[in-house]
Amino acid sequence: AKQRGRARIEVFDRAMHTQLLDRVETEQSLRRAIARDELRVHYQPVYRLGQPSPVGVEALVRWERPDVGMVPPDRFIPLAEEVGLIIPIGLWVLRRACRQVARWRAEDPRLADLRVSVNLSARQFGDASLVASIATVLEASGLPAECLGLEITESVLLDDIDATEATLRALRALGVRLSIDDFGTGYSSLSYLKRFPVDEIKIDRSFTAGLVTDRADLAIVQAIIGLANAMDLEVVAEGVETDEQLTRLAELGCRLAQGYLLAHPTPPDQVIALLPPEGAP
Ligand code: C2E
Ligand code: CA
Ligand code: CA
Ligand code: CA
Description:
Low-confidence stretches: none
Number of helices: 11
Mean pLDDT: 92
Number of strands: 9
Bound molecules: ligand C2E, calcium ion
Order of helices and strands: HEEEHHEHHEHHEHEHHEHE
Radius of gyration: 21 Å
Helix content: 40-55%
Oligomer: single chain
Strand order of the largest sheet: 1-2-4-5-6-7-8-9
Structural class: alpha/beta
Strand content: 15-25%
């Protein structure tokens, strides 16, 4: 038994070793990803129900890693957060997205009022230069502040409540919009709504997924929409995949939606092709 135990430990060691090498390697290549121009931003349209052109887009980062292919954010954002790389990466995404959306607004009448949402991680949120960086990016891109939305999850709001509140107010003073992402999945979503100056909540896609089939999900979505409307907040349903979900959301008074049914995250050069013919409303 002892022998088998030792063998198992060796196997385990080797697996750990490979994993560690993998991590170190990934971290090193991620460090060079910006300079080597391997990061991409895809844009997922957000629609006001009944309108053919999107009111906004969410910027979603991808890593086009040589010899590996397109790496989704779930596979490198956690590492980037852990080692601090999320600060330069996040700033790069922000700059790229603001510049792109300013260009679309100027060049296409169907996108003249387009807004953009960018995801912020907890680590970025704790960075003392965040507010100044955002102001600089806005200035350089020419994008009006009210056209930029910052999406934060409840984990960001958990860290240091007073510091968080101060940062949120400073961001608000810049004129940018604040959204709570994945709303309803955290522990204290409701108290945050009262304490923090948010403009929008995004219903987590796990609730949208069960909307038509699960009474609890329906009740939760209904409550979130009611709350948002009563508090004059915008509410976006995430992860809409079926017509039934969309119809149900409209009946419940949700006016903004995002999901594979409407449009997938899309590379910037393919966004125009998603729009209704020019001249249509
Ligand atoms: P998120 O902010 O909740 O973004 C929505 C995710 O849901 C995206 O995954 C999107 O592709 C996916 N999605 C959209 N519609 C549907 C649908 O109808 N069905 C399903 N099943 N999924 C849908 P993605 O692009 O893989 O991003 C995953 C997460 O990575 C994001 O979740 C966000 O937390 C994070 N992330 C992405 N880009 C950035 C970034 O630039 N900075 C930071 N800090 N995090 C980012
Ligand atoms: Ca988001
Ligand atoms: Ca989300
Ligand atoms: Ca998420």
